[in-house]
Amino acid sequence: MIEFLTTHNLMGLTIGITTFVVIGLFHPIVIKAEYYLGTKCWWMFLVLGAFFAALSLIIKEIFLSTVMGVVAFSCFWSILEIFEQTRRVGKGWFPANPKRVKKENKVNYCFFHKQAHKTNDKAAAPIQKYRIDEKS
């Protein structure tokens, strides 16, 4: 396969398409991870990123090594995106998981913007409907 790609000068195009697919796959992964696990899953992306980066260094074949590098840095970028996804949920752009809605007066710290956001502010108003009354 590698010989065919290099002979017909398709290596760059194939790597570009593969990169596009990998990045496209990570968008729903980040959304689902934030929905079901919250921001506490950031370390899994760090571990996976380090694993794929090590694989990229070990693998001798240029195409597979490049793909492993793309996956590694997609994992690293997902750490930032998981915290950004939390902000998007707070703004109402994505649905909140009703099983994980925080208490009303808790503060959510956003590492990317280095500021605290209260969950009862205007940005978090759309998730108010998911709150469960303690009386019921």
Summarize the structure.
The chain has 136 residues and is mainly α. It is 58% helix and 6% strand.
**Principal-axis shape:** elongated
Report the biggest beta sheet as strand number plus sense, adding barrel if it closes: 2 strands, antiparallel
CA-to-CA gap between the ends? 62 Å
Stretches where pLDDT is under 50 for at least 5 consecutive residues are: 103-107, 119-136
> If you average the pLDDT, what whole number results?
80
Q: Using DSSP, what is the number of strands? A: 2
The run of helices and strands is HHHHEE
What structural class do you assign from the helix and strand content?
A: mainly alpha
Query: How many helical stretches?
Result: 4
Q: Helicity level, as a percent range?
A: 55-70%
Radius of gyration: 20 Å
Task: Give the strand order of the largest sheet, numbering strands 1, 2, ... along the chain.
Answer: 1-2
β-sheet strand percentage:
5-15%
Structural summary, described in words:
The structure is a single chain. It contains four helices and two strands; from the N terminus they run ααααββ. With 136 residues, it is mainly α. The chain has a two-stranded antiparallel sheet. α2 (11-37) packs parallel to α4 (62-90). The longest helix is centred in the middle third of the chain and has 29 residues, at 62-90.
